[in-house]
Amino acid sequence: MASREPKLAVELRNLTKRYRKVQALKRISLQVQEGELFAYLGPNGSGKTTTIRILVGLTKATSGDAFLNGYHVERDSIHAKRQCGYVPQSLNLDHELTVEQNLDIHGRLFNMSRRKRKNRIAYLLHYIGLADRARSPVKELSGGMRRRVMIARALLHEPRILFLDEPTVGLDPAIRRKIWALIKRIQMDGTTIFLTTHYIEEAEFLADRVAFLSQGELITIGQPQDLMDSLGKWALDTVENEQMKTFYFRSQEEARQHASVHPGPFSIRRVNLEDVFISLTGRKVA
Amino acid sequence: MRGWSAVFYREILILKTKIFRQLASMSVMPLLYIVAFGYGLGNEMTVNGVPYLAFLIPGLAAMSSMIQGFNIASEINITRFYWRVFEEFQVAPIRSIAYVTGEVLFGVTRAAMGVGIITGLAWLFGIRLSYNFFFWLAMVMNAFLFASLAVSLAMLVRSHADQALLVNFVITPMGFLGGTFFPVEKMPHWVQILLEYLPITHAAKAMRAAALGNQPDPESYVVLGIMGVMFFVLAVICVSQAKD
């Protein structure tokens, strides 16, 4: 029996964006498979948000092409927009209106019937754990609750791809973990997720694959574990002449042996994605 | 055109949350003008044989429809730069014309509320005029035109401060010069020619003629119609271009 060919949910071909003198994106090409949770990792100003804004139709690319489920985001924008939901970095809800009203307006914009809007709103408010706040004005909700409402709004029209731009920025660690659990659940329900983050642990915990972006350039793409394994399993941080240096080893034992002959303070820990980013770019992610 | 009703519905919901403030604010300006200019200056005054208050009310209605129609620019600005809700419309699968239609219809609704308040105040002050079909037609066309202009300019400005400048340099002078408080025919000939290019002059003329029971000049409606279509098309173009 022939296996089912995985479909492309997101495809970028030589995507370039220039703002006057600043080259925000430099010929980015990548593909995200249907059902994947793909993380776009890089420091502030690396081009993560610009990529997402082009994909959802908020920014025009200078050159290159972007597709959502095969629809070109500019030439076939209405169809492309139907494929995706978008949760921007900044909170963009109507604060005077209730949670239910914010969601209802979104449903109307996507031409959903009254019955479907009602059912989906009830389902999603339960899904995000805010069923009891449906009639609360958004201004009365906490930051974490507002973020969950934005996620529910983006899911209302049942998009096949969800774009999350720094979904947990500014949230405390406990709320952040709640959002992570929600994101994982959305993926398990069959939605492709494309998220940007500069939190290393977020990408490590959530992503099936990560792409590193630095100064508008795509540095590398791969599975988090494979990328980390390419350096080693263990990292030894040392301080030499007031400079921090990190060495990588296959085993903890090797790291300990190296540390024993090394003068000065040191620490041994597991390799993380930040190490991969630094080894490739010489810069930190956050 | 799908989606225009969602844009309009959102604006109505937001208006409902502050309806009493809005109605009070819409009432203050005409009330002051009626008292100050109507009673203070013109209780005994007539213009072309018409009592000054009866002359003033249609002019105020024209000015109010312009201001209330144009005021949606501030709301769009706040939505765009402060709350960032405008992005919600940009990522929705709706065309620019649907967005513009929703906003412009809301501008017309606001204008109708403002003019309704003026006609109510006029009635309270004992001024009886004829608010017939041609009066309301000119009001709707004027509000449509200025609401369309408001959407265009809201897409072009980059801050709230720019928005305030536009009101100071465009809307306020038009309100005072376009035949609201005095007959344009009293101005020097060259000024009259300039004022003929202002849509508010035509709105005031048509609304005044209708309210006083005279036949409005069809040319005024043609001018308002042509300019309305031009500004509406401009608004659609500006919204389509409002991307980084």
TrEMBL record, chain B:
Keyword Protease: no
UniProt-recorded Gene Ontology molecular function terms: ABC-type transporter activity
Keyword list, A-Z: Cell membrane, Membrane, Transmembrane, Transmembrane helix, Transport
A Pfam family reported for this protein in Swiss-Prot or TrEMBL: ABC2_membrane
Residues passing through the membrane, by range: 20-40, 52-74, 104-127, 133-157, 164-184, 221-239
InterPro entries hit by this protein: ABC-2_transport_permease, ABC2_TM, ABC2_TM_bact-type, ABC_2_transport
Domain ABC transmembrane type-2 residue range list: 21-242
Annotated membrane topology: Multi-pass membrane protein
Keyword Transmembrane in annotation: yes
GO cellular component terms listed in the entry, alphabetical order: ATP-binding cassette (ABC) transporter complex
Compartments reported by the entry: Cell membrane; Membrane
Highest taxon above the source species: Bacteria
Family to which the UniProt record says this protein belongs: Belongs to the ABC-2 integral membrane protein family.
Protein name: Transport permease protein
Organism annotation: Thermodesulforhabdus norvegica
